[in-house]
């Protein structure tokens, strides 16, 4: 070797002619060693990267040191490394875009204020592996385990029943661990504010928040739990000082890093001059500065995989400046979390005091973990590259007149630019150095706003920053040109320039000025149009409403009392919950509130899911190729480009199915093709399969397959289009006719008509669809995340043309399902098995979040037109209803008559149904929770008081045994519980009944409507993780043994399943098995004196007694339903009429679950279902491209299930006491799904609020409100216009 030669600033000099060279990537020979020929003299030489650069990184995970070179791809995330190396399988992933939070870990990051390393929770899926040089990372395994003992947080979350499927539990644990490590004494509010970054679909969050808030400094100690040593909660303590470790003692290599990979180079410079030199050297290469990498979660096209050269700027301390003098300077390497801390600690009496008011807005950017990682400068760079990005940071900084200091090799010193100029500045070879903030006196009135689809972690519909210098002594004279900045309007709209010019020198307190300013603003706000955007009308209305809000806010007491409520957005207080249920100690452990067995395995990350199973030797990975149109014929499929990708092995199409195999994953139901054979029925239909050596390569390969189509037709994406085009399947079921409804309607003096509509809902299971198939000598071993084992087995046997008894299917636990893994997983299992058979190797297929959302069916949309008559008050005397289900591509999906109609059985009824055909796969609904509350709007006929009083006075509580109900099934026993008690407790005080009239202001309304629900129960659907708690309660109770003897590893393995693997069927079988065992053991026990259980078992074994038992149960009844489940809900909501934002102030839920086998678990089931339903009714909107049929809302960024601040502020759940169910298992009733229906009360309450707002402006007319009742729909239905925007 003719060296080594120093590689200084990326250049190496030829040893002969001394000409500098940029080392080409292709010369890589081994780790850090290069070779090349001098382009000047032709001399061949080798060289090695030495100081000042290193060619490896060193980091610490759970206290162990790791060093890696360039053996991983430069785009590898920390999450991928943790899981692939098996260091942490408890660290999960779902979205890989920072939106779900299952990937949470703790990392010590540099804090510019304390000049030390501080604990922060980060999304490991967004963190590049090669960024973590010198970091200390802690995963869920590192804080506690079965082997070394569990951490108090892990234990507490289990004790509070804060887990159900458990897939998200490690994320919640690590989020709390990081908070306590950084702040050992948080308040309950600080705890709640920190939990917006982990999505839980199961629990409804209340139990999780209660568990975590129990660690707060102002929490009330729980007498049932042992006290917690604060040292157990803090990070590692320093051996020298005893204080929490700051991370400053561990030596850190000061040298920069230069890693060379097959397709890119990675640098970690330590000075700005190094960065400038490197950017200049590689100016012809695509390059990117990396700090938090959170932008990758928003725009995949700017991920590390898209660039030739990557610069990690975290080690450049010159970018960490924080100074306050005449101007404030905040360095580019300040994270959003640290920016909030800095702004929140400024002198409240100085010229920078206004910065404190910006903290609340910055807290609405992303969620805690994104703010921990991402910098404000990175947010602005994303705005510059994607002008339509609704950056909150850009809006608030531009509004206050901030400037940016830019640096680069070609910039002498620094260049100071405004944010508007920055948007037009080429940043090639340049970097943001710091922001410059002005001092502003108290005469500057600063307000910023953000309106978004849910309470947190969402992009804005519209955001705004308004700054005016006003003289309140002169009718709020605008002393200089104001700054009125909006985001979310269009790519180019920033300032409302005409409005700014108009207001200069005007008195804002003059109603004429306000009116003209609104007119001017209305003329210049012209929103963009797009299928992914909210409507033009809504965003324009928001812009006007926010300006009006600003005016109300600054004018203060000059505003009339009636209008003052519009001055501020809704303020959410700390949430809380109450639970009430009955229990009988004499029957314990039956009816005893107990933590779920196995919960500690979930909170510690030790519970193994399908995705955690180690790779089988020789394993390959598969991904579906999806169609990009929804109604066409395949012309050609060309996988050539995909097969050129390194690591891609094969493309599989329908023609590759083995001889005799069927291209159908529903062989026992409606035929559905595994892979499209020609006619594309819906967008994102599976056309083929790519097999590769890893999942990401398989996914990339699938997208590289080129498909051409013929006979492309416009897709039908909603029921309205289906009705217009008369796209219907043959009539699914005959009409339901009771009496002569049409005649009754014709003769009725009072008839009402209207429409009802429900949208679809994505189930949002945090473990996406996954299967692993391993060919064996006589068949196939399969691990798959399904709710229907025999359905998956049937599909595999059918496509491979093999016997079902040669297939072994195992499901240990499921990471969320909710019906989406009944039939839909069968396609994944069949496709995976097909690939395994063809490749004759193990194959794993796990859908990424986008494919999972686009390809997999959802809850079914529903539309109905009705006519209703009434004779008095509340009762419906006759009803005619015409209903349409959007069944997607399936003609038969088990539509239900009179399901949850909640009408009396003697009501004269005509009900007709049709199924609409559209270009969607919507077959995973199982139960579509319809509602038929009639939206009558007639103030003289139906109002809150009348509804309440009627319910309070309703007659009998009992329906006679054998009554015909529902779909005309004979109910074996029905007991209607006394729900009047709950209604009286809420509404009895006269002041409560007058709540509507007393609390409706002009811009905020607060109604409380009661909703009573009845649901017919034939077998509630649970995934297996939900079965074990019930079964393990029944087991010790029947055998009369101590509950602690039941292992947390107890598994429930069904022989077959579909809608039947529930405690309704398992628990009776367990009871019978236990009786068999008791009978077998009785003779042995009779010969012993008061033996313990262990002694009795041992003696039976010694005497050769077979202590196994089996019992087969199969429901044999002619009736569809076994019993009814009842519930009543009262919901109080707050609605911001100006924006449509809302919050659920209080929910009182009374549910009839018989005698709960374990009320602690059942309460969690009820709360989880209710919050799941809140998403269904209020916020989870699916949008499709009208041209292609493509699902637009296909990620965690634009699909919005509820988060921790979308749940009821005051959440009260009560189970009906002393209400045994004679036909239920041990007198219990199902509780998993019915409360979802009860959450419709929130939508009804909001509709009443909108009605109150319309009544206030004299537009009190009927209007339909379809689910989901989004923020946009609610505000739009309030019928605002600027003529209403007055101040007195």
Global mean pLDDT = 85
Radius of gyration (Å): 32 Å
Could you give the count of β-strands?
Answer: 48
* Residue share in helix: 25-40%
Strand order of the largest sheet: 27-29-25-36-33-34-35
Distance between the termini: 86 Å
Task: Give the uncertain stretches in residue-range form.
Answer: 1-9, 25-31, 893-906, 923-978, 987-1000, 1018-1025, 1055-1061
By DSSP (H or I, 4+ residues per run), the number of helices equals 36
Instruction: Give the structural class.
Output: alpha+beta
**Shape, principal axes of CA atoms:** globular
The description of the largest β-sheet is: 7 strands, mixed
Share of residues in strands? 15-25%
Structure description:
The chain has 1288 residues and is of the alpha+beta class. Helices cover 26% and strands 20% of the residues. The strands form 12 sheets. It has a 7-stranded mixed β-sheet with strand order 27-29-25-36-33-34-35, sandwiched between helices. Strands 24, 44, 45, 46, 47 and 48 form a 6-stranded mixed β-sheet that branches. Strand 46 (1123-1136) and strand 47 form a beta hairpin. Helix 15 runs antiparallel to helix 16 (511-524) and helix 26 packs across helix 27. The model is unreliable at 1-9, 25-31, 893-906, 923-978, 987-1000, 1018-1025 and 1055-1061 (pLDDT under 50).
Q: What's the topology here?
A:
Blueprint: E1 12-13, E2 20-21, E3 33-37, E4 44-48, E5 53-54, E6 57-61, E7 64-68, H1 78-84, E8 104-111, E9 116-123, E10 136-138, H2 140-143, H3 152-159, H4 169-182, H5 188-193, H6 206-213, H7 230-233, E11 256-260, E12 265-268, H8 272-281, E13 287-290, E14 309-312, E15 322-324, E16 328-331, H9 336-344, H10 359-362, H11 368-373, H12 376-385, H13 392-399, E17 403-408, E18 415-418, H14 419-423, E19 430-437, E20 444-451, E21 462-471, E22 477-478, E23 483-487, H15 497-503, H16 511-524, H17 536-555, E24 576-580, H18 599-603, E25 620-626, E26 632-638, H19 640-644, E27 648-652, E28 679-680, E29 686-692, H20 695-704, E30 706-710, H21 719-724, E31 736-738, H22 741-747, E32 751-758, E33 770-776, E34 779-784, H23 789-800, E35 807-810, H24 824-839, E36 843-846, H25 849-855, E37 862-869, E38 878-886, E39 908-916, H26 944-953, E40 958-959, E41 964-965, E42 969-970, E43 974-975, H27 980-987, H28 990-993, H29 995-999, E44 1004-1005, E45 1010-1017, H30 1024-1039, H31 1063-1086, H32 1093-1102, E46 1123-1136, E47 1142-1151, H33 1159-1179, ...
Parallel strand pairs: 5-11, 6-10, 12-14, 13-14, 24-48, 25-36, 34-35, 38-39, 47-48
Antiparallel strand pairs: 1-2, 3-4, 6-7, 8-9, 8-10, 11-12, 15-16, 16-19, 17-18, 17-19, 20-21, 21-22, 21-23, 25-29, 26-28, 26-30, 27-29, 31-39, 32-37, 33-34, 33-36, 37-38, 40-43, 41-42, 44-46, 45-46, 46-47
């Amino acid at each position: 070797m003719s060296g080594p030669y120093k590689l200084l600033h990326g250049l190496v000099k030829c040893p002969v002619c001394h000409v500098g060279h940029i080392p080409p990537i292709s010369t890589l020979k081994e780790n850090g060693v290069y070779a090349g020929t001098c382009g000047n003299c032709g001399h061949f030489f080798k060289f090695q990267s030495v100081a000042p650069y290193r060619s490896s990184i060193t980091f610490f995970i759970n206290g162990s040191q790791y060093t890696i070179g360039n053996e991983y791809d430069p785009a590898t995330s920390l999450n991928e490394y943790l899981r692939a190396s098996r260091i942490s399988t408890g660290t999960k992933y779902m979205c890989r875009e920072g939106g779900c939070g299952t990937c949470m870990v703790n990392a010590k990051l540099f804090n510019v204020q304390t000049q030390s390393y501080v604990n922060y929770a980060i999304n490991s899926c967004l963190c590049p592996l090669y960024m973590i040089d010198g970091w200390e990372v802690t995963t869920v395994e590192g804080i506690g385990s079965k082997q070394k003992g569990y951490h108090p947080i892990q234990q507490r979350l289990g004790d509070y029943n804060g887990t159900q499927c458990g897939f998200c539990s490690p994320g919640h644990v690590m989020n709390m661990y990081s908070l306590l490590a950084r702040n050992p004494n948080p308040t309950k509010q600080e705890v709640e504010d920190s939990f917006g970054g982990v999505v839980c679909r199961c629990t409804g969050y209340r139990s999780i928040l209660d568990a975590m808030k129990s660690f707060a400094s102002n929490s009330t100690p729980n007498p049932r739990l042992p006290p917690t040593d604060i040292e157990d909660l803090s990070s590692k303590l320093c051996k020298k000082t005893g204080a929490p470790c700051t991370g400053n003692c561990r030596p850190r290599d000061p040298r920069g890093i230069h890693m060379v990979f097959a397709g890119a180079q990675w640098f970690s410079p330590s000075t700005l001059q190094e960065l400038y030199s490197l950017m200049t050297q590689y100016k012809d290469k695509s390059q990117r500065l990396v700090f938090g990498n959170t932008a990758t979660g928003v725009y995949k096209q700017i991920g590390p995989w898209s660039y030739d050269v990557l610069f990690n700027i975290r080690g450049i301390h010159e970018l960490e400046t924080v100074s306050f003098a005449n101007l404030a300077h905040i360095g580019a390497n300040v994270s959003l979390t640290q920016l909030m801390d800095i702004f929140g600690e400024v002198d409240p009496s100085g010229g920078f005091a206004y910065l404190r008011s910006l903290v609340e807005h910055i807290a609405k950017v992303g969620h805690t973990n994104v703010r921990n990682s991402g910098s404000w400068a990175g947010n602005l760079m994303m705005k510059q590259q994607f002008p339509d990005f609704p950056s909150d940071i850009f809006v608030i900084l531009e509004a206050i007149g901030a400037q940016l200091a830019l640096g680069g090799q070609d910039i002498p010193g620094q260049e100071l630019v405004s944010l508007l100029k920055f948007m037009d500045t080429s940043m090639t070879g340049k970097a943001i150095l710091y922001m410059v903030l002005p001092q502003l006196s108290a005469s500057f009135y600063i307000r910023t706003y953000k309106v978004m689809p849910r309470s947190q972690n969402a992009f804005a519909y519209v955001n705004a920053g308004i700054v005016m210098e006003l003289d309140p002594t002169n009718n709020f004279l605008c002393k200089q040109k104001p700054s009125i900045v909006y985001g979310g309007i269009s790519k180019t709209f920033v300032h409302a320039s005409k409005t700014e010019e108009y207001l200069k020198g005007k008195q804002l307190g003059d109603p004429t000025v306000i009116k003209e300013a609104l007119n001017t603003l209305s003329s210049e706000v012209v929103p963009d149009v797009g299928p992914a955007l909210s409507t033009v009308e809504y965003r324009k209305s928001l812009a006007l409403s926010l300006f009006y809000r600003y005016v109300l806010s600054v004018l203060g007491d000059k505003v009339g009392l009636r209008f003052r409520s519009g001055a501020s957005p809704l303020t959410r207080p700390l949430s809380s919950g109450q639970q009430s249920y009955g229990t009988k100690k004499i029957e314990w452990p039956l009816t005893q509130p107990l933590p779920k067995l196995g919960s500690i395995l979930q909170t510690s990350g030790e519970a193994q899911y399908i995705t955690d199973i180690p790779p089988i030797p020789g394993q390959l990975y598969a991904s579906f190729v999806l169609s990009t149109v929804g109604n066409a014929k395949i012309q050609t499929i060309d996988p050539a480009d995909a097969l050129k990708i390194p690591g891609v092995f094969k493309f599989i199409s329908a023609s590759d199915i083995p001889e005799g195999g069927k291209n159908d994953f529903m062989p026992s139901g409606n035929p559905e093709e595994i892979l499209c054979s020609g006619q594309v029925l819906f967008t994102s239909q599976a056309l083929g399969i790519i097999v590769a050596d890893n999942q990401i390569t398989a996914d990339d390969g699938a997208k590289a397959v080129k498909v051409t189509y013929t006979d492309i037709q416009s897709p039908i994406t909603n029921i309205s289009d289906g009705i217009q085009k008369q796209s219907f399947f043959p009539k699914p079921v005959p009409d339901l006719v009771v009496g002569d409804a049409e005649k009754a309607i014709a003769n009725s003096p009072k008839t009402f008509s209207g429409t009802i509509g429900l949208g679809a809902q994505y189930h949002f299971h945090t473990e996406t669809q996954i299967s692993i198939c391993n060919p064996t000598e006589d068949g196939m071993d399969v691990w798959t995340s399904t709710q229907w084992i025999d359905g998956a087995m049937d599909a595999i046997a059918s496509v491979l043309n093999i016997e079902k008894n040669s297939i072994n299917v195992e499901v240990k636990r499921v990471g969320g399902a909710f019906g989406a893994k009944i039939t839909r997983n069968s396609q994944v299992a069949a496709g995976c098995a097909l690939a395994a058979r063809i490749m004759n190797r193990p194959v794993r297929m796990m859908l990424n979040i986008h494919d999972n959302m686009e390809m997999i069916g959802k809850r079914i949309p529903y539309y109905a037109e009705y006519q209703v008559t009434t004779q008095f008050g509340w009762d419906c005397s006759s009803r005619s209803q015409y209903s349409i289900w959007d069944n997607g591509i399936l003609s038969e999906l088990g539509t239900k008559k009179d399901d949850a109609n909640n009408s009396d059985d003697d009501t004269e009824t005509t009900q007709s149904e049709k199924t609409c055909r559209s270009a969607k796969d919507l077959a995973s609904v199982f139960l579509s929770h319809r509602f038929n509350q009639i939206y009558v709007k007639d103030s003289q006929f139906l109002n809150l008081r009348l509804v309440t009083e009627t319910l309070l006075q309703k007659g009998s509580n009992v329906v006679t045994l054998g009554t015909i109900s529902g779909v005309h099934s004979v109910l074996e026993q029905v007991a209607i519980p006394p729900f009047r008690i709950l209604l009286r407790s809420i509404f009895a005080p006269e002041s409560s009944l007058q709540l509507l009239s007393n609390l409706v202001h002009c811009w905020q309304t607060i109604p409380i409507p009661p909703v009573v629900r009845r649901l017919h129960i034939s077998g509630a659907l649970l995934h297996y993780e939900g079965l074990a708690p019930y079964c393990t309660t029944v087991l010790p109770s029947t055998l009369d043994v101590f509950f602690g003897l039941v292992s947390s590893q107890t598994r429930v393995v069904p022989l077959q399943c579909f809608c039947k693997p529930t405690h309704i069927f398992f628990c009776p079988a367990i009871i019978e098995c236990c009786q068999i065992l008791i009978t077998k053991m009785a003779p042995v026990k009779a010969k012993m004196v008061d033996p313990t259980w262990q002694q009795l078992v041992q003696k039976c074994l010694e005497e050769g007694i077979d202590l196994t038992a089996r019992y087969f149960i199969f429901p044999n009844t002619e009736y569809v339903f076994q019993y009814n489940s009842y519930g009543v809900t009262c919901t109080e909501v707050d609605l911001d009429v100006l924006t449509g934002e809302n919050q659920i102030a209080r929910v009182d839920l009374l549910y009839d679950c018989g005698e709960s086998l374990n009320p602690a678990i059942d309460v969690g089931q009820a709360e989880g279902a209710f919050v799941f339903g809140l998403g269904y009714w209020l916020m989870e909107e699916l949008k499709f491209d009208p041209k292609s049929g493509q699902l637009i809302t296909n990620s965690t960024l634009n699909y919005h299930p509820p988060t921790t601040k979308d749940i009821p502020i005051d959440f009260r759940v009560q189970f009906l006491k002393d209400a045994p169910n004679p036909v239920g298992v041990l007198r219990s009733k199902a509780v998993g799904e019915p409360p979802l229906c009860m959450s419709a009360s929130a939508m009804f309450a909001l509709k009443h609020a909108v009605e109150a707002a319309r009544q206030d402006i004299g537009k009190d007319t009927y209007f339909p409100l379809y689910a989901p009742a989004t923020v946009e729909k609610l505000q739009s239905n309030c019928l605002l216009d600027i003529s209403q925007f007055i101040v007195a």
